[in-house]
Amino acid sequence: MKKKELAKYEARAQVFKALAHPARLKIMDELAVHEERCVCDLTEVVGFDMSTVSRHLSVLKNAGLVGTEKRGQMVFYRSTVCCLTGFTECVENVLNNNVKQQQAALKA
Fold it and tell me: Is residue 100 part of a domain?
């Protein structure tokens, strides 16, 4: 693989790594439904303490998946991508297909 091509795939891998945690997936789902949330709201939704949620948000922000807006003392987070909904639907289809294949294998 050439350097330029490798860099492209490494950059893609960083985005996938940012999504590779259940809490971060939940945060992205929440931001897809509710256009923006503060850390305190996301803490309640995810069920982790504020510092843990903040670290997860930092990972998502560094990957370019969320943006921030500071209002007074509060920071609000919002998704910067709209394509994840289609991607997560694709993942759900893969999971459903895997279950069907496993059920078929058990019947055989």
Answer: no
